[in-house]
Amino acid sequence: VQLVESGGGLVQPGGSLRLSCTASGFIFSDSAMSWVRQAPGQGLEWVSGISDGGTYTLYRDSVKGRFTISRDNTKNTLYLQMNNLKPEDTAVYYCVALYMAESKALDGPRGQGTQVTVSL
Fold first, then answer.
1. 22-59 confidence digits (pLDDT tens)
2. Running DSSP on this structure, what letter comes out for residue 76?
3. Which residues, 6+ apart, have CB-to-CB distance to 103 below 8 Å?
């Protein structure tokens, strides 16, 4: 399993970013996927998950209505559109293969992460 995240950066509160995760080494279209994040000094936190076909999605309460998870199985790519970003969204974001639910995603295989910083 290889996962490469990109798209992070520095953004002001209220701004937007779109994260991408390019997958290889497994059958992406057969795999549920998730995004998790880790804020400075904190543990891993599940953010969102999506089913293999993209029909079903899950979000943690704090990002509902602001973040949208999606995937393009023709490009082996997972996305996270993040709008109305808040300082508390600052973290390293990782994509996780195989799992969409919080209970398993935190222990799943993940990439190297991409830093998202929300600050004035």
1. 999 999 999 999 999 999 999 999 999 999 999 999 99
2. T
3. none
Token readout for 40 is 């400075």
Contact (CB, 8 A) for 83 and 19: no
Going by C-alpha positions, the residue among 54, 47, 37, 50 that lies closest to residue 93 is 37
DSSP helix/strand/coil, 40: coil
Sorted by sequence, the CB contacts under 8 Å of residue 105 that are 6+ apart come out as 34, 36, 46, 49, 96, 99
Q: Residue 18 forms beta bridges with which residues?
A: 81
What are the phi and psi torsion angles at 65 (to 5°)? 85, -10
Residue type at position 84 = N
Contact 48, 32 (CB under 8 A): no
